[in-house]
Amino acid sequence: MTTDATPAFLSVRDLHVRFATEDGTVKAVDGLSFDLERGRTLGIVGESGSGKSVTNLTVLGLHDPRTTTVTGEIHLDGQELTRAPERTLERLRGNTMAMIFQDPLTALSPYYTVGRQIAEPYRKHTGASKRDARLRAVEMLEKVGIPNPRLRVDDYPHQFSGGMRQRAMIAMALVCDPDLLIADEPTTALDVTVQAQILDLLKDLQQEFGSAIILITHDLGVVANTADDLLVMYAGRAVERGTVREVLRAPRHPYTWGLLSSMPRLSSAVDEPLSPIPGTPPSLLAPPPGCPFHPRCGYTAEVGGERCRGERPTLPDGRGAACHLGTERTRTLFTEQIKPRLG
In this predicted structure, what is the pLDDT of residue 3? Predict the structure, then answer.
């Protein structure tokens, strides 16, 4: 954690994001706080609908203000973003902060060539000429592993495969060497070899420019090998955080145990079934009271179901978990029950 004298490069405090819908108000993010320093990578994991992408779209100011209510504070290098005018956010997006979107097919425009879409933010933020911006686009396509980049720079998105479109999205996000890079499932559509190339590229960017990276993913293996810190989200809240080593080696929240237990292991028999988390994620129109995970948790009897249903657990600063079990009891349960299953 940082002090008031040394604020974090990215600081999110008590963030709430609400969406107005015909069915009611969706509480997509519910009191989220975290910090990220330059040169470090924060992994954010959780099931679909846990608020990971919504949080980071809020950082970039990409929600429709007509249907979205945002409260709390987001500071990027000392500048407050939640109340910043759109002109300020436009100056920052694509330059100081950028995002690799999860679905390149919808993020890329079908009307313009891939090269033009990569060159456009570079021209806007650097004032480069069309020729120099095109050369930069070719350079970025080559960096992300697109074959024959001088020819493919004039292709349209539909002429690229799914994996190539994903790499083009990454090239667009990196073209201005952003200080903050948000990567939303950046390797989803890529084969293992290209995944490694892209993750190495992100590491090289970070080492060269000291960038801060947020990595949103379902792949705990990617997090283990790439991130420095880890934030586990559930139902719009952070339920556990710490360094990657701390969280993956000694997780303290039953939800984190469930995520780890549901992963296949090399030591398991081929026909051994996985251990999924029971139930389904809650509706954010009406999230459960108290601990949002209690309807799916197998440990409520340890502390009394009434407390889990009626009292919201708090997430301590630094390393910790938002769970009524407490640190000592979760450590014992993990050692005796969960760790032997993980192998």
Answer: 47
